[in-house]
Amino acid sequence: MEWRCEWCGKPHEENDPPCDNCGHGRFEKAVVQMGPAETDDAVRPVWTCTECGRDHEKHSPPCSRCGNAALERRERDYSDVETTGSTGWLDVLDRRYTAGFAVVGVLALVLGLGMVGVVDLPVVGSAGQPSPPEVPGHAEEVDGISLSDAEDGLVETVNDDREDAGRQPLDRRETLDAMATYYNTRRVEHDYEDADAPTLSELDPFDPNCQGPISVLPYSRLYVGDLVDDSIDASSMGQTLARGRGTADSLSERLEADETRAGIGVDIHVAPEREIYVTVVAC
Questions:
Q1: How far apart are CA 268 and CA 280, in angstroms?
Q2: Dihedral angle of Cα 246, 248, 251, 257, to the nearest 10 degrees
Q3: Which of 93, 117, 113 is nearest to 105 (CA)?
Q4: What is the pLDDT of residues 153-179, one digit of tens each?
Q5: What is the percent of the chain where pLDDT is above 90?
Q6: Among 48-52, 99-103, 171-175, where is mean pLDDT lowest?
Q7: Is 12 or 228 the better-scoring residue by pLDDT?
Q8: By CB atoms within 10 Å of each CB, which of 58, 232, 246, 267 scores lowest?
Q9: Residue 18's pLDDT band (boundaries 50, 70, 90)?
Q10: Looking at residue 37, what is its pLDDT?
């Protein structure tokens, strides 16, 4: 090749500008055989559309964006670049995304600590537990007697009898209460709404944190009418339900004999026919 572009150095066989690489209008005589042109992008000019301002590497009208036929040669402008150097992946993260990743990381950490028991999370361990069904009857009060107070009286009676027998009192636990409430209301649902009979496998989603086996003790032998004649209060109602008016297989006797038990939960529900449904869960 005998000719090359004065600007970009591309070899040409003839002195026939403009350069078909950069569009420059002057060639110079080549002294030596030139290899492929190697032009630094930092000094190579650009061709800018006079209409939309789009930069082109070559003078090859029309503009690839707007179709304008006039391209103007300009030097590359690096005045808006503050510093040069390598760019890490942190440099391209938007602050909003960075904050979002930080929040997700904190939540994941707290959830992990909650799962292993380092921090107390009310949600952990309760998610997925079945809710007791809506059933007819009374769950809070009957004939002015608080059923919650009657439950307290039942647990107190059981613990009094256990202490008399040299056993440790049982600890009232929320999860065991929830299991007893679910199973007890399922019994009422079965008897009064033709639902399937409750099974112990329905209690599997609960997590009572028991070290030993769990006992579910359903009981319903008395009617409210059997107790009204005595004009009893909630405490004595719980006592009567625990001891079963001296029946051989009372709840208290069944729990008194087992020294491996540590926790208890209880639910009392009065059905529409005023039969008293009691379920105790112990472990």
A1: 9
A2: 120
A3: 113
A4: 999 999 999 999 888 999 999 999 999
A5: 30
A6: 99-103
A7: 12
A8: 246
A9: confident
A10: 46
Mean pLDDT value across residues 71-86: 65
Q: CA 123 to CA 126: how far, in whole Å?
A: 6
- The owner of tokens 């919650």 is 148
**Cα gap 51→30, rounded to integer Å:** 37
**Which amino acid, 228?**
V
The owner of tokens 């939960």 is 265
Query: Does residue 268 contact residue 145 with C-beta atoms inside 8 Å?
Result: no
Domains observed in the chain? 86-124 (no CATH), 141-282 (3.40.33.10)
How many whole angstroms separate alpha carbon 5 and alpha carbon 188? 98
Which token pair is 280?
A: 């105790």
Helix, strand or coil, per DSSP, at residue 277? strand
Query: Can you list the positions of beta strands (E) in 115-229?
Result: 141-142, 145-146, 171-172, 215-219
Show the CA angle centred on residue 258, arms to residues 254 and 263, nearest 5°. Answer: 95
The amino acid occupying position 23 is G
Residue with tokens 């602050």: 95
Q: Tokens representing 107?
A: 């939540």
Q: Which residues lie below 8 Å from residue 16, measured CB to CB, with a gap of 6+?
A: 27
- What whole-number distance in Å separates Cα of residue 229 and Cα of residue 87? 87
